[in-house]
From TrEMBL:
Start and end residues of each Pyridoxamine kinase/Phosphomethylpyrimidine kinase domain: 72-248
The protein's name in its UniProt record: pyridoxal kinase
Gene3D superfamilies according to UniProt: 3.40.1190.20
MF term (GO), any: kinase activity
Amino acid sequence: MSSILVAEDLSAVGGISLSAALPVLTAMDYQVAALPTTLLSTHTSGYGQPAVVDLATWLPQVFKHWTTAQLAFQQGLIGYVGSVERCQLLQDYLVTQKLALLVIDPVMGDLGKLYTGFDDRYVAAMRQLVQLADVILPNVTEACLLASVPYTEALNLPQLLAACQKLLKPGAHVVITDVTQNDQIGCAWLTPDGVQFVGEPRLAGHYNGTGDTLAAVITGLLGRGFSLTRSLELANQWLHIAVAETLSEHRSDGRQGVALGGLLRAILTLG
Ligand code: ADP
Ligand code: MG
């Protein structure tokens, strides 16, 4: 069994981020070290102001203990970190680790804007952190922020991917996660043959936790040795299942993250 470190927010209510990554990666046969970067009473979409605990004083104690206990991880996934200080703490710990795979979802914005509470210093901290990554999973907004490219409707995908690629170590991949092509939503990345795309038909609506779940699935598949292309194909198929299941539930409360039952069954049938 492979041991994976997952660092992102733990929102008690809402079923996203760490709460979604845990079942997904457990179903994929990983031992999961679930490291909250911050604690929230709910996620930040639709519940009002959550009660938040900044874990910046706890994280160094965790890393010290793990070092004493001689814990080692084979894979890592970093999602929402949320402060420059916590980015630096994670970075300092991760440089001491010999991970076979590190995936970073540089969560910091959407629809052309940084999320509230973030600034240029945070973008700079994320640029530092992604230097450690084997794969990064920005959305279009985050890719533009990382690459210092203006966000426009007329997206130059090859240029944006190439600009992000320059921030990473040799051999690492940038995968942009919210690319629309015709009526499909999916992922785009660069190979020597040009821009590649895999996607599935876009279903109606917007759902919480799709990006977090996608990142967990992609990391789990890559860690199990699937190629980047195959991992992205399966991840998009499974997210489509999750969104379709969520739609079929006709939820009266749209705040809860995407349904994970069908996606977990799909993972288990993979064997
Ligand atoms: P987030 O904004 O949470 O980071 P994204 O919008 O990047 O999430 O979506 C992540 C993935 O979830 C997409 O690549 C796609 O596979 C799936 N997805 C998201 N929204 C839809 C939708 N409306 N219909 C079908 N699939 C979707
Ligand atoms: Mg995302």
